[in-house]
Amino acid sequence: MLMTLLQVPLAAISGLIGIFAPAWLYPGELGYKTTCHEIATSVSSASNVYYEGTPFKQDFENWSQTNTEIPTCAFEPANTQDVGIALQILAKYKTPFAVRSGGHSPNPGFSSTHGVLIVLRSFSQVVYDQNAKTATIGMGLVWDDVFPALEQYNVTVIGGRSSGVGVGGFVLGGGYSYLSNQYGLSVDDIVSLELVMPNGTVAHITSSSNPDLFFGLRGGFNNFGIVTTVTMKTHHQSQVWGGSILYTWDQWEEVNKATASFVSKVTDPKASIYVTVEYIHLVHGMPVMMVTLFYDAPTHPDGMFDEFLKIKYFKKDITTRTFLNLLKSFPSTPPLIRIVTHWVPIEQFTLSMLRMIMNQTMVYGKKVSHAGAMFLSYDLTPFLPSLYDHSETLSAFPPLRGPGQGHSFIEVICGWEHEISDEAIGKLTAESAAYMKQFAVDAGQNVSNALLYPNAAPSGTPLVDMYGDALDRLRSIRAAVDPGDVMGRAGGWKF
Prior knowledge:
Blueprint: H1 2-7, H2 10-20, H3 29-42, E1 48-50, H4 53-60, E2 73-76, H5 80-93, E3 97-100, E4 116-119, E5 126-129, E6 134-138, H6 143-151, E7 155-156, H7 167-173, H8 180-183, E8 190-196, E9 202-205, H9 211-220, E10 226-233, E11 235-236, E12 240-248, H10 252-265, E13 271-280, E14 286-295, H11 306-309, E15 315-321, H12 323-328, E16 338-346, H13 351-370, E17 373-381, E18 408-416, H14 422-442, H15 464-467, H16 471-481
Parallel strand pairs: 2-4, 3-4
Antiparallel strand pairs: 1-2, 5-6, 6-10, 7-11, 8-9, 8-10, 12-14, 12-15, 13-14, 13-17, 16-18, 17-18
């Protein structure tokens, strides 16, 4: 018998294993197809499993190529029961999977996989409760869908600051908004979550029903199961005043002075600015600066933004508009290119720091361009020191809310086309981010131990650098909720 088996071609033996053995004994496409087939035949007819075609392609094409893989199948569950069935099958076969809301993370594998891709597209409801002043939102939406649905009631929630961002990763990862000076982060406004547990059961999570999971889910992403809907506090939303102004290189020093002046003087929580300095290789290395001005009312107090408005500009789009119109007016990063992001927490944008950032833009813009980059962007977002004072309960992120956490930040974003440039660009952008943080520390800013925002930290960032002392509690919660490590087979930050 042994000799007979040895004479059988290897491909034939592999074929027999694939037919008769569990999928986990035969890793790879054939094993994953077994999982896909069982999901397809076990869930309700309302759900769909795709292996090819337009819906399949739409399901796996994410914002960034660094987080885009072709799955064996894409599963679009129609209800929580089917999500639970799929999780049990995935656990049975030990098949890798990913969960996709908007697909906006650039980190490899965070919402992509070669196994089973769970796409939450069907969880697309926005239900406003006027009495409770809450909105229940499906995790399959992008914020472009949420804001207009709430606009008819003259309310909004703490959501994304740019077009195309998904609800899921944003709201479960922290969530900084133009409204955060007034109301805090998105996690601060979560009232409840609908969670499909790793064992397939469905739970309604609130601060009173399950304090540990309520803590862990607010900043802890998909470590504890799959969240299908979230209920958030709403806030009155009128028209807003704001938009963007584009400046050329020769105006940067004036803009730096206006920025430093604004952050040192303005304490009105309805006001905010957002400064982007960018080196664009495709335009012969042209550095540009865009300043977003925002006031949460149809008009702003006299004089508040005058220092920006009087500077000679290249292009201006400032007006009274709806909140959604404001978000859609901003240019977005081109999709389907490779992206890396870094996060630098700081306390104050001083004039010397702003000049340093201008220098980084030119020096590292040229360096990453030589390595194959299309652009390098430094996004500067100042917040008030009261940013973290709006939460009634602790959250996984930010686990610390006192001094030393940095209430403002610089986000480094770099985009390129070819995988061969990944390592060089990753090293250069990390080098620039580290330099800027050290600059802040040397200037006396208390950010040496400030935690990083998980939604902007690059792949490979140590968990302790994002979650600090909360990591032990988060690991304990995960072990209790998911002893079989089902969610450990999904992408993302894993406790």
